[in-house]
Structures are given as C-alpha cells and as structure tokens.
Amino acid sequence: MAREYEISSIVSCFIRAIRARVVTVRHSGIVLAHYGRLDAIFDTCAKTIVDVLKEEGMLNSNGEVIVSVGSQAVREV
C-alpha cells in the first residue's frame, strides 16, 4: 500500500510537470505503457497525459508527437 502511494505520488509530480510544459510530453510514453497495470490513481494520472496529447495534436497541430509517444508506449509493453 505504501509503495503504491509512493509511485502514484512520483508519477503525479511527473505528470504535473508535463501539464505545465516543464517536461516535454514526448517523455510520457513510459507512463502510458503501464496504464491498467497499477492502481486507479495511476490510471487517472495517465488519463491526464491523454488530455495533454489531445491538446498537442488538435490545438498545436503536432500529430508527430502523438505518434512518437504512442510508439514509445507500445515498445515499452
């Protein structure tokens, strides 16, 4: 239980950095690769990455990033 909380805490900080554009969304594939494998808190955090990717693809017309992150996530599985 304590380890799950620790992992969720670290991942949420990482995702907040991505959301704030401090860390590029290109590094988020590793988180998406583990969607559904950990607890519900982790999955909720991972959904935030999907929202950031949607913004990047639709608002910034940067579909290359979506393909890159998706490919990275599939390779990590």
Give a concise summary.
The chain has 77 residues and is mostly helical. The protein contains four helices and no strands.
DSSP strand count: 0
Helix content: over 70%
Q: What are the secondary-structure elements, in order, as H or E?
A: HHHH
Summed over residues and divided by their number, the pLDDT gives a mean of 88
Q: How would you characterize the largest beta sheet? A: none
Identify the overall geometry: globular
Number of domains: 1
Strand content: under 5%
Question: What structural category do the secondary elements indicate?
Answer: mainly alpha
Report the total helices: 4
Q: How many angstroms separate the termini? A: 24 Å
Report low-confidence residues grouped into runs of 5 or more. none
- Rg value: 12 Å
